[in-house]
Write a structure and sequence with these properties.
By secondary structure, the protein is mainly beta. 6% of the residues lie in helices and 49% in strands.
C-alpha cells in the first residue's frame, strides 16, 4: 500500500500575476522551485489563503530570482494579485512512511523571498 505525503510546500507565496488567456498552470520562480525541490510540469495543489479556493494545476518555471508567482488559464479566475497562496507537492511512499519524514517547507515574504526553510529539499 502507498500513502500520499506532503513533500514540499511554498507557504504564503504572493500572486504577482494572473493570465486567463494562457492555456493553464502556475508559473513559479525557478529559484524557489529548486530550493523547494519542486519540478516543472509537476502537479501541485494550490490553496488561496485569502478566499479559501483550492485547485490542482501543474508548474511552469519563471526566470530565477524573478519573484514571479502567476496563475494561468481557468485558475487565474480563482485568485487576485497580492493573494497569499500555499503551493503543495506530494510524494507516494510505501506505508507506513518513515518515522522521520519531513517535508521541505519554505515560508515566503511579501516579495516571494524565503524567510525560513525546513526539511529536506528532495525525498526519493
Amino acid at each position: 500500500m502507498f500513502v500520499s505525503m506532503l513533500r514540499a510546500k511554498l507557504h504564503q507565496a504572493r500572486v504577482t500575476g494572473a493570465d486567463i488567456e494562457y492555456v493553464g498552470s502556475i508559473t513559479i520562480d525557478a529559484a524557489l522551485l529548486e530550493e523547494a525541490g519542486m519540478f516543472p510540469n509537476e502537479r501541485v495543489l494550490v490553496a488561496d489563503i485569502e478566499n479559501g479556493a483550492r485547485f490542482e494545476t501543474y508548474v511552469i518555471a519563471a526566470p530565477p530570482h524573478s519573484g514571479r508567482i502567476e496563475l494561468n488559464g481557468a485558475a487565474a479566475r480563482l485568485v487576485s494579485i497580492g493573494d497569499r497562496l500555499i503551493v503543495m507537492a506530494f510524494a507516494l511512499l510505501s506505508a507506513p512512511p518513515p518515522a522521520d519524514w519531513t517535508p521541505r517547507v519554505l515560508v515566503l515574504d511579501e516579495r516571494n523571498r524565503i524567510i525560513t526553510g525546513t526539511g529536506e529539499a528532495s525525498c526519493c
